[in-house]
Amino acid sequence: MSSNRTAIVTGGSGGIGCEICKRLARDGYRVVVHYGNDRQAAEKVVQEITDSGGIAIVRSADIADEDAVRNMFEFTSAEFGGLDVVVANAGIGGGGPIEQVELADFTKLVAVNLVGAFLTLREAARRLSDGGRLIFVSSQLAERPRTGTGAYSATKAGIDAMLVSMSHELGTRGITVNSVRPGATEPGMFAGSDEERKEFFRNLSPFKRLGHPNDIAAVVSFLASDDAAWVTGQHIRADGGASN
């Protein structure tokens, strides 16, 4: 792949986002590693990429702030010119039984997972080169909510619905629009779960293990590739068969 292609990965400083950044860099992309708060972690990702011969830079932005997101895209254009892939990965976990969810906590989930993803996807639609790739990191829980996940699941399902519409809107430009639905993945949001919960989710998969961020990055790599030019409007399960 040509090294003059550029990708933005939001939430690129840790977990799944970190591995997506490194995988796209290995695929030949110049990568903008977005982070919200942890600059040190983002710089570590960039260092690993550059040490391996890749090209990457860091960029901070409040993902729920319209001006900050727009500035991140303008910064990318100024540094690299065109834009070929956007991976909307930034997100937070949280929730509990709906009757116990505080409005402030739900509002924060919506701000990051729904509004933040919307702002990222909207700016991507405006700036992606023809033939580009737009990829959203969703969740298995968007399709199959469980007890205590309703608030979180709603934010992911909302963007998944938006993506189907966007796939029709952007198809005439050759832009594909897809989401990846990880299952329980460690390290990542699931890392803080207790061992009993981890064991439960391990047993849901025929492989009897949790996912690894590399598993998700491999699917993103495919969706970003030329081989995925005929795949759009899809929600790809990457959960080790746990939702079957």
How would you describe what is shown here?
This protein has 244 residues and is α/β, with parallel strands linked by helices. It has one domain (6-234): Rossmann fold. Helix content is 46%, strand content 15%. It is built from eight helices and seven strands, in the order E-H-E-H-E-H-E-H-E-H-H-E-H-H-E. The protein has helices at 15-26, 39-51, 66-80, 103-127, 140-143, 150-170, 195-204, 213-224, and strands at 6-9, 30-35, 55-60, 85-88, 133-137, 176-182, 235-238. The longest helix is centred in the middle third of the chain and has 25 residues, at 103-127. The termini are far apart. Keywords: Oxidoreductase. Pfam families: adh_short_C2. It comes from Gimesia maris. Residues 5-187 form the Ketoreductase domain.
Tell me the layout of helices and strands.
Elements: E1 6-9, H1 15-26, E2 30-35, H2 39-51, E3 55-60, H3 66-80, E4 85-88, H4 103-127, E5 133-137, H5 140-143, H6 150-170, E6 176-182, H7 195-204, H8 213-224, E7 235-238
Parallel strand pairs: 1-2, 1-4, 2-3, 4-5, 5-6, 6-7
Helix pairs in contact: 1-2, 1-8, 3-4, 4-6
Keywords, separated by commas or semicolons:
7-stranded parallel sheet; 8 helices; 244 residues; Rossmann fold; single chain; alpha/beta
Secondary-structure element order, as H and E?
EHEHEHEHEHHEHHE
What's the gyration radius in Å?
17 Å
Largest sheet descriptor: 7 strands, parallel
Share of residues in helices: 40-55%
Give the oligomeric state of the chains in this entry, treating copies of one chain as homo and distinct chains as hetero: single chain
CATH homologous superfamily identity? NAD(P)-binding Rossmann-like Domain
Strand content: 5-15%
Category from helices, strands and their pairing: alpha/beta
Average pLDDT, rounded to a whole number, is 92
CATH class: Alpha Beta
What's the helix count?
8
- What is the CA–CA distance across the termini? 34 Å
* Major sheet: arrangement of strands: 3-2-1-4-5-6-7
Q: Give me the count of strands.
A: 7
The unreliable regions are none
What is the fold named in CATH at topology level?
A: Rossmann fold
GO molecular function, one term: oxidoreductase activity
Domain Ketoreductase: 5-187
Family: Belongs to the short-chain dehydrogenases/reductases (SDR) family.
Protein name: 3-oxoacyl-ACP reductase
